[in-house]
Amino acid sequence: MVIKDFNTKINEQFGENFKQLNEAVGKILIWQEKYKNDMQIMIEQQSITTKNMSDAVIRYDEILSNTSKFTDTAENLSKIINALELQRNQLKDSLSSLADGLGKTAFPLLAITLTRDPILISIIGALTMLPWLLFAIPIGAIVDNVDRRLALATTNTFRMLIAALLSILIATDSITIFWLYLITFIVGICEVFADTTSQSLIPAIVENKRLEKANSRMEMTFTVFQDFIGAPIGGLLYATAIAAPFIANSLGFLVAAILCAAIPLPKVLVDQKRTVEKKGFIQDIKFGINYLFNHKQLRRIVITSTTIGFCWAFASSTMILYFVEDLGLNPKKFGFLLTFNGLVVLLGALMAPRTANAVGRGLTLAIAIFASSITILIQGLVPNIWWLLIPSAINAFWLPHWNILLMSTYQRMIPQELYGRIHGARRTLIWGMMPIASFLGGVVAKSDLRTPWLIGGTLATVVSLFSWKFIETLGDSAEAIHD
To answer: What is the CATH number of the domain that holds 357?
Structure first.
């Protein structure tokens, strides 16, 4: 009875609790099952996420790979565009050189038709180079800041008009030595524009390691079309009709101008990587001069080149008279002499990169300038035109070695965005002194046509020997100047 009452009380007191506990346990079991299901779903979702991440990594790797391929393709396309641009430039240079070659023979022949006075003849050579003294630096500053395609097209158009004017003067029998002086001076100004612009384009579209080859091709282009084709044709046309080579000269420049204007790129400009604010025109000129004279190596090679160039201009100022009157050259064969030299120059231009690779750029430069200098002296000693062919051929072989390798050295040394001004500053000295040398050579030749060759050749040989070590060291170092 007592136990029964106890159980009854327990059931009354705890039964409801056990019932609630049982319900709670049931709910826990339901929650656990749901949690289990949720966890299973989360695990499946995490697996999907992991797979998606793996796929994303794969896709990212593919993107990187494709980006690398795109970069390579873009670089190759850039090289192709640059190569095409170089070919267009070479085609334009070919036609300009052909026109120059016609005038190279015809101008001296026209001059000795008008006068046989050595001083008057030497003035023509002086006026050809005088624009370099007066205008090379400002023209260099202009080239650094304008569309070079437009500059080349405009220059060739002016050359075409000048050649046409000269043809008209000859055809109407109005030409005089003074008209020839004026036309020579204007043509010289155009030459400053054309040369500075063309030289500034090369380092902009050619890699440093290919500069020798590019300059070699340009030198060969000039040689083939100017000396090997243009010069003899000019002589033959002159023998047929005095005005004929100048008419052809005008047409050649016209086509060259059209080619320049037809270049599809909107602008042929070097990237302006100046870290300072853009300066005015006068400041640009001053900067180019200061840059040249504050760099010791650049300053010395320019002074050396100026001295030897002075000697060459001094010696050759009355070359046509020396060849015709002292060495017995038939004036009608002058074009063929230039063609012979052009053929040897072509061989020298072809061999210049190979010689530099074989013996070194520095040694090749030193040998080239010595050989070119001593042959000036030897040409003043030969008894007739046939003996002249030997030193003339040696000079013609080594001179393009000097021109090509020195130009490549300059293009490595001078930053592209400054090239026009620096080029103008150095050419002001090198070619600007030549008018003075030509005039002085004409004065000396008044008494003896051989004397300028003997004096100029001796001085040039001494300078080349004195500068041998410096030139060899400079050629071997040839690194960009950013001092």
So the answer is: 1.20.1250.20
Burial of 465 (0-12, 13-18, 19+ CB in 10 A): middle
* 31 shares a domain with 99: no
Span 347-364, average pLDDT: 89
DSSP 450: S
Q: How far is 250 from 160, CA to CA, in rounded Å?
A: 4
Please tell me whether residues 158 and 51 are part of one structural domain.
Answer: no
Whether 114 is in a domain gets the answer: yes
C-alpha span between 211 and 205 (Å, rounded)? 10
132 and 36 assigned to the same domain: no
Same structural domain, 223 and 329 = yes
Buried b (16+ CB within 10 A) or exposed e, 143-177: bbebebbebbbbbbbbbbbbbbbbbebbeeeebeb
d(CA 171, CA 33): 113
The structure's pTM equals 0.62
- Rounded CA-CA distance 240/308 in Å is 38
Residue 69: inside a domain: no
Total domains present in the chain: 2
Note whether residue 18 is domain-resident. Answer: yes
Query: Is 72 contained in some domain?
Result: no
Euclidean distance between CA atoms 118 and 445, whole angstroms: 7
- Which of 257, 218, 336 lies closest to 96, judged by CA? 257
Contact 429, 302 (CB under 8 A): yes
Taking only the tens place, the pLDDT of each residue in 407-459 is 888 877 877 767 777 777 787 788 778 878 888 998 899 889 999 999 999 99
Residue 269: CB atoms within 10 A of its CB come to 17
Instruction: Domain of residue 441: give its range.
Output: 95-266+281-477
CB 88 within 8 A of CB 259: yes
> How many C-beta atoms surround the C-beta of residue 357 within 10 A?
11
Same domain, 101 and 45: no
The Cα–Cα gap between 143 and 122 comes to: 30
Residue 341 to residues 309, 400, 465, Cα–Cα distance (Å): 19, 11, 25
Domain's final residue, options 36, 60, 84? 60
Residues 154 and 297 in one domain: yes
Tally the C-alpha atoms within 13 A of residue 89's C-alpha that lie toward its C-beta: 28
CA distances from 376 to 121, 317, 373, 439 (A): 20, 12, 5, 18
Q: What tens digit of pLDDT does each residue of 224-253 get? A: 565 556 556 666 666 666 677 667 666 666
